[in-house]
């Protein structure tokens, strides 16, 4: 009987250990996939391709973008906002994302805190963002973006 209890205990410990390792592996994989989305966005921006940059966002009327005192609702409105605000390459500058802190909320959602910087000929705007990502069949997408700019020096 003692042998059976020991065997069951060992089996339970092995299963729990494997489950824990599996969960950590899934978190790491999710974080890697989210980093890839942000890297693709950065690359698209730096090519001047706002349409490709927007592939990182959920193509839905429920997508939310907040900046300053403005709230844009819907993928198309977010795209239109970017196209208006960054109408040429000089205004777009070169984008860098940094300081990424990815926190999974569950298997299909995560919060990302990070910083952004634009290097342009005339200025160097920068700030912080908080993104909510959701996993869809087509991959991870931003469903909510709250971006703020630091005050100019």
What structural category do the secondary elements indicate? alpha+beta
Radius of gyration: 21 Å
Please give the CATH class. Answer: Alpha Beta
CATH architecture: Roll
Element-by-element helix/strand order: HHEEHHEEEE
- Major pleated sheet: 6 strands, mixed
According to CATH, what is the topology?
Nuclear Transport Factor 2, Chain: A
Dominant shape:
globular
Helix share, percent: 40-55%
DSSP strand content: 35-45%
Number of helices: 4
Q: What is the end-to-end distance?
A: 74 Å
Instruction: Give the neighbour order of strands across the main sheet.
Output: 2-1-6-5-4-3
What is the β-strand count? Answer: 6
Give the rounded overall mean pLDDT. 90
Count of separate structural domains: 1
- Unreliable runs: none
Account of the 3D structure:
It is a single chain. 42% of the residues lie in helices and 35% in strands. The chain is α+β, with helices and mostly antiparallel strands. It has a single domain, classed as Nuclear Transport Factor 2, Chain: A, CATH 3.10.450.50. It is globular, with a radius of gyration of 21 Å. It starts with a helix and ends with a strand.
């Amino acid at each position: 009987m003692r042998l059976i209890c020991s065997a069951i205990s060992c089996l339970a410990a092995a299963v729990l250990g494997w489950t824990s390792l599996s969960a950590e592996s899934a978190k790491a994989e999710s974080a890697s996939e989210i980093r890839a989305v942000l890297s693709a966005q950065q690359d698209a921006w730096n090519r001047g391709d706002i349409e490709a940059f927007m592939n990182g966002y959920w193509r839905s009327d429920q997508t939310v973008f907040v900046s300053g005192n403005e709230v844009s609702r819907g993928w198309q409105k977010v795209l239109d906002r970017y196209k208006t605000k960054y109408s040429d390459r000089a205004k777009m500058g070169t984008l860098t994302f940094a300081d990424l802190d990815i926190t999974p909320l569950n298997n299909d959602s995560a919060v990302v805190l990070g910083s952004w910087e634009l290097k342009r000929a005339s200025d160097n705007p920068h700030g912080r963002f908080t993104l909510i990502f959701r996993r869809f069949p087509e991959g991870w997408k931003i469903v909510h973006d709250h971006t703020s700019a630091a005050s100019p020096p």
